[in-house]
Amino acid sequence: MISEGSLQDFSFSDLLQIISLNGSTGTLKFASEGREASVECRQGEIIGATAGGVQSDEAVYVLFSWERGRFNFLANHSEGPVNIKTPLADLTKEGIRRLDQWRQIKREMPGISAGTCFVRSGSELPPDASAAAAEIHQSLESEQSLSKLAEECSMGELNVAQALLELWNAGAVEMHHTPEEASRHLFKRLSEGLFERFASISGLKMTEGLESLLNNLARENETELRWRNGKVHDGLSLGLSGEELISIFKRFVDAEMDYIQRIYPANFSQRALSEIAEGMSLEERKAWEKLDLPLSPLGVHS
């Protein structure tokens, strides 16, 4: 079993597979976005788990959605409760199903994450609101992040996100992003948008070359960013300032643009940037300007 590492290199489902194959016994600990979790293993099975205020099987399901952070494995060590009897194969199947639900929510609410803050809007709670949505709405007496709501209401983050989506669609809550969050969202949108457009007209070898370039650059600079199938996995510390984030992101955007422009003419990149820029928020436009891209965001309509 790997003793320590990043969730950008090994996803939670990867770690469960390694535990099963190795028949591992010990405690797997996680730290991500100010949250902590632990998973107890015995001979390749999961026998206990906690994630914030969530226990048992639900704690395991929560961990499938953690994309950033660090983990370490303490072999032949036990410190948490024994509160799981579900076989690992069944835990994995359900965890992947819920991860798919998370991805659907993110498609409907672009930019939502554990650190995203929500506040009540001027609209009333819909009369047909679910019990979970009503509880979340009542808890939003002041602006709170998704992760804090999950902890306060003792719900899994997926359940909170589903309730927030219901409230958001009804106009009962507003989603707020800090400038730092906006920078992260813009970088993900930029990098993935460029990668997708490049991959659509390029061979597998060239596409793999771009992903390898970005991952190698991240490892060389000891930066908690990884790319898998063109998707960005952001494990950068939440404590980084907006300026620090922009400095990091610019290095990778420049590298990605340089790779693409060595293969295709400049108008390909400019056309891609123009398409990606559509629908940006005000905070994302500000971050765009700081990245010093060859296309101005001014005049792009949201």
Protein architecture, described:
By secondary structure, the chain is an alpha+beta fold. The chain has three domains: 4-105, no CATH class; 109-176, no CATH class; 179-290, no CATH class. Helices cover 50% and strands 17% of the residues. It has a six-stranded antiparallel β-sheet with strand order 1-6-2-3-4-5. It has a three-stranded antiparallel β-sheet with strand order 8-7-9. Strands 10-11 form a two-stranded antiparallel ribbon.
Helix-strand layout with pairing:
Layout (H helix, E strand, L loop, with lengths): L3 E3 L5 H11 L3 E7 L2 E8 L2 E7 L2 E2 H8 L6 E6 L12 H21 L8 E4 L10 H9 L4 E2 H8 L3 H13 L3 E4 L2 H22 L3 H17 L4 E4 L2 E4 L7 H20 L4 H12 L4 H9 L12
Antiparallel strand pairs: 1-6, 2-3, 2-6, 3-4, 4-5, 7-8, 7-9, 10-11
Helix pairs in contact: 2-3, 3-6, 4-6, 5-6, 7-9, 7-10, 7-11, 8-9
Overall pLDDT, averaged? Answer: 89
Oligomer: single chain
**Percent of residues in helical segments?**
40-55%
Proportion in β-strands: 15-25%
Report the radius of gyration as a whole number of Å: 21 Å
